[in-house]
Design goal:
This protein has 224 residues and is an alpha+beta fold. The chain folds into three domains: 2-39, no CATH class; 52-88; 133-222, no CATH class. 13% of the residues lie in helices and 32% in strands. It has three helices and 15 strands. The strands form four sheets. It has a four-stranded mixed β-sheet with strand order 4-5-6-7. A four-stranded antiparallel β-sheet has the order 9-8-15-12, with no helix packed on it. A four-stranded antiparallel β-sheet has the order 10-11-14-13, with no helix packed on it. The termini are far apart.
Length: 224
Amino acid sequence: MYKKSTITLYLLLLSFVGYSQEGIGIGTINVEPDAILEIESSSANKGVLIPRMNTTQRTSGWAKSQGLIIYDVDFNAFFYYTGTNWLQLVQSPMQANLDLSNNRIVNLESGVDDNDATNKGQVKQWIQESQQVVLGGAVWDDGTKRTEIPQIGNWTVNRTSLGVYYINHDLNFEGLLVMAIPDFPDHTTAYDLWNMSETSFRITVRNHDNNIVDGGFSFIAIKP
């Protein structure tokens, strides 16, 4: 009777577990040749349930093998053990936004190839060094900003007196090439090389009689 029950149990197990030359199949007998274990379900609503534990249980001092995977119910995330510490499996950015909470990726290298990642500081430096437009926009005659060309450099404007406008920027570079175009045909604009610093430059507006007057203008600045 005992022998008969054992044979029956063995045959029952064979109906759920299949074997290939090197792999085991659960729910299938057609195990792929490159698989050690293959699991299939005859139902459309079943999956593999990874062992679950909380963070305290996961980080306690029990023996852990390299490559061990668990599901942390406190983080609602999968973790794997590297042999020295636990690392979280990051969700794909296609499924959820990657939130660094204003922290930086500290080991980001300088990009060399087209597909390399770079940070904002590197991009800003490259644009500033590429002889391209780094500032630009338009100013009203009362000294307020009208429009701004989206560039790396940020700028503000300060009207210090009649027809005198200082463009203040964050490029920390003295020697920008500036071109300014007045709004009115009878006005001219002058870019004052003698009133330039690493953070500002001056533009003066004059009329056809060469008198300094208030007037709007547009400008661009290029780093040579």
